[in-house]
Specification:
This protein is α+β, with helices and mostly antiparallel strands. It has one domain: Fumarylacetoacetase-like, C-terminal domain (Fumarylacetoacetate hydrolase, domain 2), CATH 3.90.850. Helix content is 16%, strand content 33%. The protein has 5 helices and 14 strands. Strands 1, 2, 4, 5, 7, 8 and 11 form a 7-stranded mixed sheet that branches. A 4-stranded antiparallel sheet has the order 10-9-13-14, with no helix packed on it. The protein is globular, with a radius of gyration of 16 Å. The two termini are 27 Å apart.
Length: 203
């Protein structure tokens, strides 16, 4: 199982971090050890002093494929969820200054949260998807899939040009504006439309 992530897929988020708007999907990966198990506590990483949440829509790959045409891409994913791509922002900033890869800031153990999967239906795909994150009962992120720079199909097709996609792979499709810091004791709650999908307390 592979975890693909798309960076800077919402213009407002790219702007809030001072990044250029990409001309093609920005792809990075997390190992399977990054996937947090919901029956275990989530602990603030000891190596960071600035942990940021990034709420995202997540796709589940349902069919093996490579070099998938964009107009066929929707046949390769069958479920959707929301998740958090946690980022050690202080570590990332130092690595970026040096021009170094930033996996240490993004791909550490338990840095990927994903809620239960929802089967994808024509109704879900035919309308913009709204998703929100609450921190300590206050809304901090509100996303709308219609604001994505690159669509689900474009992302799937693009990734498949470089990597084989396999059943069970996940794709984090990018975070909207509003990312920010969280600390020990914070409660994070994620919603897909009006449905609460996860609750996470940082230990």
């Amino acid at each position: 199982m592979k975890i693909f992530c798309v960076g800077r897929n919402y213009a407002d988020h790219a702007k809030e971090l001072g990044n250029a708007i990409p001309e093609e999907p920005v792809i990075f990966m997390k190992p399977k050890t990054a996937l947090w198990q919901s029956d275990t506590p989530f602990y603030y990483p000891e190596f960071s002093n600035e942990l940021h949440y990034e709420l995202e829509l997540v796709l589940r790959i349902s069919k093996n494929g490579k070099q998938i045409p964009e107009d066929q891409a929707e046949n390769y994913y069958d479920a959707i969820s929301i998740g958090i791509d946690f980022t050690a922002r202080d570590i990332q900033a130092e690595l970026k200054k040096k021009g170094l890869p930033w996996e240490k800031a993004k791909a550490w153990d338990n840095s990927a949260i994903v809620a239960d999967w929802l089967p994808l239906t024509d109704g879900i795909l035919s309308n913009p998807i709204h998703f929100t994150l609450l921190k300590n009962k206050e809304m901090v992120q509100m996303g709308n899939s219609s604001d994505m720079i690159f669509s689900f199909n474009k992302i799937v097709s693009h990734i498949s040009n470089y990597f084989s996609l396999n059943i069970g792979d996940m794709i984090y499709t990018g975070t909207p504006a509003g990312v920010g810091e969280c600390v020990v004791g914070d409660l994070l709650e994620g919603f897909f439309e009006t449905q609460k999908m996860f609750e996470l307390e940082i230990k």
